Amino acid sequence: MSGRAVTLGLALLLGAPGVARLVAPGLLPGLDRGSAVVLCVGALLIGAMCLTNRDPMGIDVASPPVARRYLLEGGMAMLAYVLALATSLWLLKRVDPMPLRAAVALLPLLPIVAALLAMARYLRALDELQQRIELVSLAVASGVVSLLYMAGGLLQSARLVEIAARDAMIWVFPLICAAYGVGRGAIARRYE
């Protein structure tokens, strides 16, 4: 299975609940419209990685056992994330005690930590050139997203736009992931 196929599968997995909620609101009553839009945009960003990158998951550069382990660990973590996010959004509408609400709200972080650990294990198993490509891709992604957030903050300070903190904060990690995926394709081409 290719990295592009796996990435498209993740995009579909992420986008399916969002599309279902937008098309048939009664199908997923616990998922609000804003969250459905976030899921759809996330799926579109992952899809953009597939269009701009020959190997969006970066698995073609690793040995087959390393690639298989990464696909399994990363795929399971992303599946767990989608389930944890949907569960968290559903439970937040039904839970009142503050400590329990905090735990439920933070539930989707657990699979993200698992995904980051899988990525770290994967990166350690790559050769030095590929590690360099990955590091530069992450640096560029962090810089791009930081500039976007700085621009948004400056425009908000000038009262030209109004961005709710809740909306802005939820997008940091997905934007870094998308910028990394898109940028990685361009950076990897420099070394071909």
How many H/I helices? 8
Structural class: mainly alpha
Helix/strand order, N-terminal first: HHHHHHHH
Average pLDDT, rounded to a whole number, is 85
As a whole number of angstroms, the C-alpha radius of gyration is 18 Å
User: Which range does the strand content fall in?
Assistant: under 5%
Overall geometry comes to globular
Largest sheet at a glance? none
Structural commentary:
This protein has 192 residues and is mainly alpha-helical. It has one domain. It contains 8 helices and no strands. It has helices spanning 3-23, 33-52, 64-92, 98-106, 109-124, 128-157, 165-170, 172-189.
Write the topology of this structure.
Elements: H1 3-23, H2 33-52, H3 64-92, H4 98-106, H5 109-124, H6 128-157, H7 165-170, H8 172-189
Helix pairs in contact: 1-2, 1-3, 2-8, 3-4, 3-5, 6-8
